Amino acid sequence: MNVTSLIAKRYRIKNLIGRGGMGVVWLAHDENLGRDVALKTMAVAPGITEEQRARDAERFRREAQAVARLDHPGLATVYDLGEENDTRFLVMQYVIGTTLADRIAEEGPLPIEETAAIGVQIASVLGSVHARNVVHRDLKGSNVVIRTDGVVKVLDFGVAAFLDPDITRLTTTGERPGSLECMAPEQTLGKPIDHRVDLYALGCLLYNMLTGDPVFAHDSELMLLRMIMEQPPVPPKSLRNDIPDELEELVLQLLAKNPDHRPDHAGEVWQRLAAWLPERGAPEAALTPWVEVDPLRPFTHPMAPEARPVREWAQRTTRRH
User: Which residues are CB-contacts of 98 (< 8 A; sequence separation ≥ 6)?
Assistant: First the structure.
């Protein structure tokens, strides 16, 4: 697939967005509806057997079904699923913003209120997803996008798994879908998993937001795996002393090696994080121009108008006066 290719007689490829374990993501233009979309094609590794190809294709189809049946403002909407020249593709909402990983890299440790504002939005998404028996299994900073208006979107359910016991597991013994940076100990071992692997990953993201550092890091993958399985995390307050005790306690509980010692539900995490959300802002402040990403905005100015029309209106108002 190349730039300018036309897929399914309607999706014009514009440029490459990124590559992942399950496929390639392209920015495309839907010529039927006149909008940009994210088009994900399934990667086919060279030399795989027909059985492996069929299994990967089934996993890709299941991804589309898993995401399409979810409904939450913090998720990217699924628009279409198809196949073109033996290439399976998934068409989704194109989300513009900065990734959480990039924001931490640029800003360093984030303020407590901002960490809570981002964390509760992720917890809200996870609560909705888990209620429908789906886990993400690859939640990490590069899969979380913060729009300019502060709305957080959780992306890439490419390794999502149904928890329905009647559905055959597609992951073979020994496989580790996802990346190590936010992977729970039980997942690194290939053990049966449930929604609590996502809560562990959320703990990793909170830790990273609060300290600017990952929970564990090592040049050797084997050593990193050992740290994830055996080593307790450095308490975040030892890296940043203004973290509230209750917030540190929540983060360390989410990072428990034993999933039974983690919070049981994303709703509990949401409730505990909400204590550090910002207070409601003055209404007139919602009508002033802004250009920076502001994760506090959904809470300081809930249901405020979108960024672009507000800026245009405010600029016209300023010129008249």
Answer: 145, 146, 293
Lookup result for tokens 């073109």: 84
The label of the residue with tokens 């931490």 reads 104
Task: Please compute, for residue 293, the number of CA atoms within 13 A of its CA located in the half-sphere on the CB side.
Answer: 20
* Closest to 122 (Cα-Cα) out of 136, 109, 132, 108: 136
Q: What is the pTM of this model?
A: 0.87
**Residue owning tokens 């196949």:** 83
Could you write out the DSSP letters of every residue in 267-282? Answer: HHHHHHHGGGPPPPPP
**What per-residue confidence (pLDDT) applies to 173?**
36
Among candidates 176, 163, 184, which has minimal Cα distance to 258? 184
Q: How many beta carbons lie within 10 A of that of residue 121, not counting itself?
A: 25
User: In this predicted structure, what is the pLDDT of residue 239?
Assistant: 97
Query: Residue 215 is encoded by which pair of tokens?
Result: 């929970």
- Alpha helix segments (H runs only) across the chain: 50-68, 100-107, 112-131, 185-188, 196-211, 221-230, 245-254, 266-273, 297-300, 307-320
40 annotated ligand-binding residue: yes
Query: What rounded mean pLDDT belongs to the chain?
Result: 86
DSSP-derived secondary structure for 134-174: EE-S---GGGEEE-TTS-EEE---TT-EE--TTSPP-SPTT
Contact 184, 201 (CB under 8 A): yes
Catalytic residues: 138
Residues 6+ positions from 136 with CB-CB distance below 8 Å: 126, 129, 143, 154, 157, 159, 160, 198, 201
Residue 79 β-bridge partners: none
Q: Locate tokens 């374990």: which residue?
A: 21
Stretch 127-146: mean pLDDT: 92
